[in-house]
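Pipeline run #58 for the internal structure catalog. This entry was flagged by the ingest filter as a single-chain record with no existing model, so it goes straight to prediction. Upstream metadata was stripped on purpose; only the residue string is passed forward. Reviewer on rotation: M.T. Logging verbosity set to normal.
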Amino acid sequence: MDFDLTKEQQLIVLGLIAALLIGCAVMAARQFFPGGQPGGAITITPPKPDPGFTSLITVHLCGAVRREGVYKLKPGDRMLDALSLAGGARPSADLSAVNLAATVKDGEKILVPAKQPPLIESAASPAVGQKDKIPSPAAKVNLNTADEKALDSLPGVGPATAKAIVEYRRTKGVFARPEQLMEIPKFGKSKFERVKNMISI
């Protein structure tokens, strides 16, 4: 059979053949990829992270440690682990102020404090009937914040006078200058001279 087709007819036939081939290819792709979406789209599942991989956390350790610095630890590590990386604590470290069992956190700054030297009370020769303790000059008694017990520790100030000082604050306000102590009954100049270097405002 002789097919004498014009160029337009040949183009139409070629187009039909191409469409048929594309259709067959799409059907074959759907058979090979049954999980594909309508229209030929294929769902790609991202890879799951490796459960064996653990990101590290960073902490800054300073204070009474042998090697201050920034250290990497695993999530869930304890303060004791961080201290070990820093070479341990110095002999002056006050480890009672640190919770060695606490879990460290990412970005945390950990300060290991040093032990504080004990307060020294200087002894003096007290007058008869007066106190036998004088506060250390470094630990002055603040007239505006001290309680009756702290005020009572001053030489020449008994419980009644300490109570009068607290009452003075309550009724007249805070002390603006130490000399206002002499406005309290029975708190004369001689008593003020004894405590003026032991008080602050």
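catalog note: Residues 8-36 form one domain.
catalog note: The two ends are 122 Å apart (CA to CA).
status: ready for reviewer M.T.
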